[in-house]
Amino acid sequence: MECVCCGSASLTERRDRTAQGYRRFRCRACGRQFNERSGGSLNRAQYPSDVIALVVLWRLRYRLTLRDLAEMFHQRGIAFSHEAVRGWEAKLAPVLSAELRRRRRGKGGTGRRSWFVDETYLKVRGRWRYLYRAIDRNGDLVRDGDLVDTMLSEHRDMAAAKAFFRPAKAATGMTPDRVTTDGHGSYPRAIRATLGRRVAHRVSAHRNNGLEQDHRGIKGRIRCMRGFKSFRSAERFCRSHDELRDFLRPRTRQGQHVPADRRRRLHLRRAIAALATLEAA
C-alpha cells in the first residue's frame, strides 16, 4: 500500500481502526493519515464497502428497483434510502464495466470471428432511443455468443453506426471476418469506413435470431424500472448490465452438459471477482 497523498511506501499502521473496521495508516514521509478506503470512490461512505458492492451487484444483475433493494437490506438491519442506491450505482457501475471490458480484450481467440449486430429500443425521458448491441461467434459450435459491445444512441444513422463500430473494435482488440446485420442502409458504409473493406457484410434476418433473443436480457431487466430519466444514466446502466451479464454467463457448446454444481461454483467464483472489483473502487 502507498500513501494516497505523496505515493510513499513508508507507512506506519495505527492500532485503532475506523468505525467500519478499516485499518488506519500514517505516512512517515508527509505525515498524513488515511485508511484503506481513502482515495477511492467509497472514501466517505457511511456503510461498509462489502455491503455497497453487494447492493450495486444486485442492482445490475437482478430485476430489482431502487426501493426493492432498500427494503431488502432494511429487513437485514441495514437502513439506507433508495437515493443512496442510485448514488452508489452512479459511482461504481462505470468502474465495474470498465474493468470487465478490459478483462475480455483480446480473449476472443484467433479463429474465425463473426459479429452479429442489431439495435433495440429503450425509452429515455419519454422518447425512444436506440441501443446498439453486438455479439460474436468463434466457430459454429458456440451456443451463447460473447458480448462485443453496447452503445446507446439518440439516432439510428451513419454517424451512430460508425460510433458503435470504432469502440467495438477497440474493446475486442481485433477485426472480425464478417458482420451480420438486419440490412439497415447505414451499415455497409460504416463497416467499410471503420472495419475495412476486407470485412464481409452479410444481411440476414434469421441469422440474427440469436441476438434478437439476447435482447431479452436488457429488455426484461429494465421493464420494472419504468424507463430512464436521463440519457447518461441509461447509457451507464445498459453498458454495466451487459458487461456483468456477459461476465457471469457460462460459455457452453452445442450438446455440452454442464452439471448444476459446476455452474453454481462458476457463478460464485465470478460473482466474488465482480464484488472484489466493486469493493476496491
Please tell me about this protein's structure.
The strands form two sheets. The chain has a five-stranded mixed sheet with strand order 6-5-4-7-8, with helices on both faces. Strands 1-2-3 form a three-stranded antiparallel sheet, with no helix packed on it. The relative contact order is 0.13. 42% of the residues lie in helices and 20% in strands. The chain folds into three domains: 1-39, no CATH class; 44-103 and 250-281; 113-249, Ribonuclease H-like superfamily/Ribonuclease H (Nucleotidyltransferase, domain 5). With 281 residues, the protein is of the alpha/beta class. It has helices spanning 49-61, 66-74, 82-103, 158-172, 187-194, 209-222, 231-248, 260-279, and strands at 11-17, 23-27, 33-35, 113-124, 127-138, 146-153, 178-181, 200-203. The chain has eight helices and eight strands. The two termini are 15 Å apart. Keywords: DNA recombination, DNA-binding, Transposition. It comes from uncultured Craurococcus sp.
Supply the CATH architecture of the largest domain.
2-Layer Sandwich
User: What's the CATH topology name of the largest domain?
Assistant: Nucleotidyltransferase, domain 5
Q: Into which percent range does the helicity of residues fall?
A: 40-55%
Q: What is the end-to-end distance?
A: 15 Å
CATH uppermost class of the largest domain: Alpha Beta
Overall pLDDT: 87
Number of domains: 3
The biggest beta sheet is recorded as: 5 strands, mixed
Task: Provide the structure class.
Answer: alpha/beta
- Describe the global form: globular
How large is the count of helical segments? 8
Our estimate of the beta-strand percent is 15-25%
The named CATH superfamily of the largest domain: Ribonuclease H-like superfamily/Ribonuclease H
Q: Strand arrangement, largest sheet?
A: 6-5-4-7-8
Radius of gyration: 22 Å
